[in-house]
User: What shape does this take?
Amino acid sequence: MRVTALLKRLDSGRILLLWNRPYPEGEAGFPFVGGDGLWSATPVSNFRAELSMSFSEDECATWSPPVVIARSDDPTRRPEVCYPYAFEPTPGQLWITAHRWDLRMCLREDDFVAAD
Assistant: This one.
């Protein structure tokens, strides 16, 4: 499986995970590609049309349920929302970007996790 992901420790102590799940939300699979020894050694999911977010409060032992925060379903735009990056300019404020889709968004950590 090919994964583009980001782990970031937040000011709250939580760890943020941004990543592309291997198949669309609500689905149990996605067609594999590769395995030809050129693009990849084994067949893999290359699904990158959704960017998901989860949080861990116990050093990555468990994670909150994933939330899709960006979805590319417009065939006129680049279909991949991947290579995420997050910046926390002030505690709890998350600036999130994704390179391949020109995504720029600002989210609040408290909107996705229970307040301490």
Notes: Residues 27 and 97 are 25 Å apart (CA to CA).
